Amino acid sequence: MLRPRIIPCLLVKDKGLVKTVNFKNPKYVGDPINAVRIFNEKEVDELMVVDIDATGENRGPDYKMIEYLAAECRMPLCYGGGVKTVEQAQRIFGLGVEKVAVSSSAVENPEFVTRLAEQVGSQSIVVVLDVKKRLKGGKYEVWTHNGQKNTEKCAVAFAQQLERLGVGEIVVNSIDNDGIMKGYDLALVDKIRESISVPLTVLGGAGSLQDIGQLINKYGIIGAAAGSLFVFKGIYKAVLINYPSRAEKDALITLK
C-alpha cells in the first residue's frame, strides 16, 4: 500500500555534507556517511543524496562515494548528480542504489528519460525540477546547474511532458524556499499536483514537522522532503541530525 514518505535530502559538495539557502552559500554541516548512519538508527522512510558539484563541474558520478553510501544505507536510497547516460545509471544501480535522480540531463534532453525508463524501469527514475517563480507574471520556471541557468521552461508543462515520457517520480524543488525554513510553496505544489498523476515529492522550505504534516494532510500520498529541518536544530541552527519518531509521524498525519 502506498503511503506518504518523509525524506531527508542530503547535499554533497567536495565530499562533505552541506546546506544552502536559495541554492547559494553552501555551509558545511558534517560527514555524509555519519549522517547516513544516524538516519539508519532513526529508521527513515527514504534518503535522497545529491552531489551538487557534479553537473557544475561537468563530471560524472563519484562512484566510490556512492558505493560507500549504499553500503551504509539501510533504507531506500535515491542518488542524483552527474548522471548523463544509461550506462552510468546502471552502474549506480549495481552499487545498491534503488533510485537514480536526474535533472539537467533530463531538461536538456527529455528523451533521455524515456531511454532510462526503458532500460531500468520507470519506477527507478526520478527527475528533479529546480523551480523558481518569475517576479513578473508569477510563472514557475525550471532552472538547472544549481540554480544558475534559467531554461525558461514552464515547470507545469514540463512535468506533464516528463510523465508522457515515462518518468517514475518527480521531485519539485523550490529555489525560492530553499533553506528558508518557512514552509513549502503550496501554490507551486497545487499547480504540479493538478497536472500529473505520477508520484510527487516536494522539497524546499520545510521548517517544522507541522509543515510536513500540512503537506501530507493536504495532498495525501506524497513525498515530503527536507534538508535543513533534518540537519539543524533550534533557532540558532545548531547542527544536529534528527528525524521524527514513529509516534511523531503518526501524530502529524491525519489521513484516513
What do these coordinates show?
The longest helix has 11 residues, at 155-165. The chain is built from ten helices and 14 strands. Helix 7 links the parallel strand 10 (169-174) and strand 11. The strands form two sheets. An eight-stranded parallel beta barrel has the order 1-4-5-6-7-10-11-12, surrounded by six helices. The protein has a single domain (5-252), classed as Aldolase class I (TIM Barrel, Alpha-Beta Barrel). The model has no long low-confidence stretch (mean pLDDT 95). With 256 residues, the chain is an alpha/beta fold. The protein has helices spanning 32-41, 63-72, 86-94, 104-108, 111-120, 155-165, 186-195, 209-219, 228-231, 246-252, and strands spanning 5-13, 16-21, 24-30, 47-51, 77-80, 99-102, 125-133, 140-144, 149-154, 169-174, 200-203, 223-226, 232-233, 238-239. Pathway: Amino-acid biosynthesis; L-histidine biosynthesis; L-histidine from 5-phospho-alpha-D-ribose 1-diphosphate: step 5/9. Its EC number is 4.3.2.10. Heterodimer of HisH and HisF.
Concise overview:
This protein has helices spanning 32-41, 63-72, 86-94, 104-108, 111-120, 155-165, 186-195, 209-219, 228-231, 246-252, and strands at 5-13, 16-21, 24-30, 47-51, 77-80, 99-102, 125-133, 140-144, 149-154, 169-174, 200-203, 223-226, 232-233, 238-239. By secondary structure, it is an alpha/beta fold.
